[in-house]
Every structure is written in structure tokens, then in C-alpha cells.
Design a protein that fits this description.
Length: about 475
């Protein structure tokens, strides 16, 4: 063997060792916590970060790979929509009470039917889904978008804007409301503006779009699935209650407001099949040159380049009115008298119903997390060194749950003199049945334990960041 070969071999060997060390370091980081302190599951190409709390949800990075492992209540916090290019799996858990009150800072061109361009802002659970983003199995319950802006803007339940991304098996229930006046704006149940695919999704939405300026004529859009663009939409269930006040031109559809390819000159063949639309859009179009596009399927179709099959919009109602001095709203009482009725959580979410005693208008708000009646079996007791594990069955609905029992802490003043010995098992005295709060601070309370004990406690305290995860087994 020549010197150069040996040298190369050694170099390779050292590189291999370094590479091995990197893998070990990365694997260690990946299995336990990422930079944001979130628990990470590593499973080959299928790596994802588990999300079980509002804080974790609010600290998602734009290109991460996430999976919900619990229902999350966002009430009390204003949700800041993100521009997202990663993968998000709602895992059939629900996000309750997300509230969006402002458009994001992201600007993208939108195009009207004359291919005029507008620098447009967006609002939605996701402000923007970038090329390649995928969101699946996400359920938004009581999604609230309530935005007023003087910029061109699209607001929607799941994504304000989408660029060649996918929404699969998602649902949204809530109220999307936009007040605007600058030339180009609209509201969609699932998507505001864009392209990509919306498959097996559902929307049960109240959509309100109000033109706040009666003097300029605007292009205004509303759609139960999508306000404008050319997304493929297949096998979706849409229930819409639309309220559109427009001093300009409406493009309203039970499914899509306006179907348009953009920018000019693109070649695409779309697919809009198997969708079911019910509901109504009440609107006015204050304009002397009226077109008043409003249909159950698509308000205005700029180009018929799509498969069109099995779409059922027979139960859609077009409700045009001809007085333009008063904005159209879901609840029209001048002096509402709302009465509250609370439905407690059970094996389903709780909520409050607000009903007007003057006119009978009613809406639900303030959803609360499910409250099952679990009977727990401890499968493994927790010790100082290891977490325990328990499984529960709801005695009412039969849903099952699994929960980690946090590691035990040493009682005050107790130290282990010989840490290499088998630790004594300590019996769990009380097991909490609700998600355990972050226990980071617990490690601080202990003093006097040896270095090994301290290390165990710090790691234990961080890792215990205890979570309960409820998993429906169908
Ligand atoms: Zn139950
Ligand atoms: Zn009323």
C-alpha cells in the first residue's frame, strides 16, 4: 500500500469518526429537543415535531414538520399567522378559538379578471402556504378572522394565500370577516387566493365581506372553498352563509368566487369534482354596470380548463338585494339582546351559544376542550430514573388515552449516596389526569444531591415537560 493510500485511508477514517460523532450529536438533539425546546420524534424520513400546547403551536418554524398530538385551545391569545412551507399533520386533533385580527406582512401579486395586478396582503390560520407546503387532517373549530384593512387583501379560514400547496382532509368551522375598500379583496372559507389542491376538506363557515368605500368600484370575491384562483378542489363539503356588500363587482360562488389562471399565459388543466355545496350568499352589487356574478358552483369562470364532474350545488341559494345604504351582516338587529347559554364540555367540545331574543339570530363561540371520564390503569409505575406509563378508557364514549407519569423526585433532604445502585422504587401517590404543566423549574428546588442526581433531575425535568396524549382509536 502506497503512502498516499494509507494517508487517504486515515483521512477517511478520521472523517468517518467525525461523521459518526456528528450523527450521534444530531441524533441526540433530534430525539430529545430541537432549538425551541420541542419534543422531537425521529422516525427516518418521517421526522416530525409533536405539538401538544398553544406555546408550541405559536413557536412553529416556517419550514418545520409538525404533528398535533392533542386538541389545543387558543382562546385568550391572538393567533399570528405564519408563512409556511413545511408539513403540518393535524392528526385529526382540533385547534379551537384561533383568532386573527390583522393581515400579515407578506405581499404577493393577485390578478383580477382583466389580469390587472395588485400587491395583496393575507389573513388566515396560515397567512401563506408556500410551494410544496402540505397541511392535512387539521380541524379548526371556531376559527375567527376579523380584519379591517386599506390594502388589497384576502382572508380565509385555513390559508390566506396558497402557492401550489396541498390541503388534505382539513376542516374549518367559524366566521371570516373582512372590511376593506382597496380595489381587490375577498373572503374564502378555506382559501383566499391561490392554486394547489384542496382534497376531501370541509367548511362550515359564515363569510362576511364589506366594502367600506361606496365611491370607488372594486373587484370583490367570495367563495365557500376559495375566493379566487385555480386550486383543484375535489370531494369537498361546503356549507356557506355569505354576506357580501359591494360597491363594485361581486364574484361570489358557493364553491369558488372566480376561477382564473394567473399570471397570464400559464397552461394548466384543473380538476373540480365531487364537491357538495349548501347554503346561501346574500349580496348587493352597487354598480350601474351590473353583472352580479353569484352562483352555487363558481361565480365567474374565466377559463373552462378543468374536469367538472359530480359537483352538487342544488341546495345553494342566491339572495340578491337592491338597497345599498346598509351593509349586509349575519345579525341585522340595531339593538341586539343576546342571551348566553353554556354547553359544558363532555366527550365533545363545550361552547357558548349567543341568541338574540329580538330576532332569534344565534351563533356559537368560546369553545372548550373535551372532558372525558377516564378510568386509568397504571401500566408502569414511575421511578426516580424512569417515567411511568398509564392507559385510560373513557367510561362514556370508550375513547382511549395514554399518558406518561413523570419521573419521581427525591423527597426533601434525601440523597443517594451510591448512585450506581438500583434505585428504590417509589410508589406514585397521586397521578394527575390532566396534561401536566411544564416542570422545568422543579429541578431548581433540589440541592445537595450528587452531580449524577443533579444531571438526572435536569434531564428529567426538561424531558418530563410532561405531556398527556389522547389518541382516538377508531
Ligand atoms: Zn368520552
Ligand atoms: Zn337580533
Amino acid at each position: 500500500m502506497e503512502y498516499n493510500d494509507i494517508h487517504t485511508d486515515r483521512k477517511r477514517g478520521i472523517l468517518q469518526i467525525l461523521k459518526g460523532m456528528m450523527v450521534v450529536i444530531l441524533a441526540f438533539t433530534a430525539v430529545f429537543f430541537n432549538a425551541a425546546g420541542l419534543r422531537v420524534h425521529a422516525a427516518g424520513d418521517d421526522d416530525y415535531i409533536e405539538i401538544s400546547t398553544a406555546d408550541e403551536l405559536m413557536n412553529m418554524s416556517p419550514d418545520g414538520n409538525y404533528r398535533l398530538i392533542a386538541d389545543i385551545d387558543l382562546s385568550g391569545a391572538e393567533w399570528k399567522p405564519i408563512v409556511f412551507s413545511g408539513h403540518f399533520d393535524g392528526n385529526s386533533f382540533s385547534i379551537l378559538n384561533a383568532s386573527v385580527k390583522q393581515t400579515g406582512s407578506f405581499v404577493r401579486k393577485t390578478y383580477d379578471g382583466n389580469m390587472k395586478e395588485y400587491d395583496t396582503s393575507f389573513a388566515g390560520f396560515f397567512e401563506v402556504l408556500e410551494d410544496g407546503a402540505e397541511v392535512k387532517n387539521l380541524k379548526l373549530i371556531n376559527m375567527r378572522v376579523d380584519v379591517e384593512t386599506d390594502k388589497p387583501c384576502f382572508a380565509a379560514g385555513i390559508a390566506g394565500y396558497m402557492e401550489k400547496s396541498s390541503l388534505i382532509n382539513c376542516s374549518v368551522q367559524g366566521i371570516i370577516s373582512l372590511r376593506a375598500h382597496e380595489k381587490m379583496f375577498g373572503v374564502g372559507g378555506i382559501l383566499g387566493y391561490g392554486c394547489g389542491s384542496i382534497e376531501r376538506c370541509s367548511a362550515d363557515v359564515t363569510l362576511v365581506c364589506t366594502d367600506t368605500d361606496a365611491d370607488t368600484k372594486d373587484e370583490q370575491y367570495m367563495g365557500g372553498a376559495c375566493a379566487a384562483g385555480y386550486p383543484d378542489i375535489n370531494d369537498c363539503e361546503i356549507k356557506i352563509a355569505g354576506f357580501d356588500s359591494d360597491h363594485g363587482y361581486v364574484h361570489d360562488g358557493g364553491l369558488v368566487g372566480m376561477y382564473i389562471f394567473y399570471p397570464a399565459g400559464i397552461d394548466y388543466h384543473g380538476s373540480i369534482t365531487g364537491n357538495h355545496v349548501t347554503g346561501k350568499i346574500r349580496f348587493f352589487e352597487d354598480n350601474t354596470n351590473r353583472r352580479a356574478y353569484c352562483k352555487g358552483f363558481i361565480g365567474e369562470i374565466m377559463i373552462w380548463e378543468f374536469d367538472n364532474d359530480r359537483n352538487d350545488t342544488d341546495d345553494f341559494e342566491r339572495d340578491e338585494i337592491f338597497s345599498y345604504d346598509k351593509d349586509i351582516k349575519p345579525h341585522e338587529c340595531d339593538a341586539p339582546n343576546m342571551e348566553e347559554s353554556v354547553t359544558a364540555p363532555s366527550c365533545d367540545f363545550g361552547y357558548t351559544t349567543y341568541t338574540c331574543s329580538n330576532c332569534g339570530y344565534s351563533e356559537t363561540d368560546h369553545y372548550t376542550l373535551k372532558s372525558h371520564s377516564f378510568e386509568w390503569t397504571i401500566n408502569k409505575e414511575a421511578t426516580i430514573d424512569e417515567e411511568g406509563f398509564k392507559t385510560g378508557v373513557c367510561s362514556v364514549c370508550g375513547v382511549t388515552a395514554e399518558a406518561v407519569i413523570p419521573k419521581l423526585e427525591l423527597p426533601e433532604g434525601v440523597t443517594l449516596l451510591e448512585p450506581e445502585e438500583e434505585p428504590l422504587p417509589i410508589v406514585v401517590e397521586e397521578v394527575t389526569e390532566t396534561p401536566v404543566e411544564d416542570t422545568d423549574d422543579k429541578a431548581d428546588k433540589k440541592g445537595g444531591a450528587g452531580i449524577i442526581i443533579a444531571a438526572v433531575l435536569i434531564l428529567g425535568g426538561a424531558a418530563a415537560g410532561a405531556f398527556v396524549y389522547l389518541k382516538k382509536r377508531r
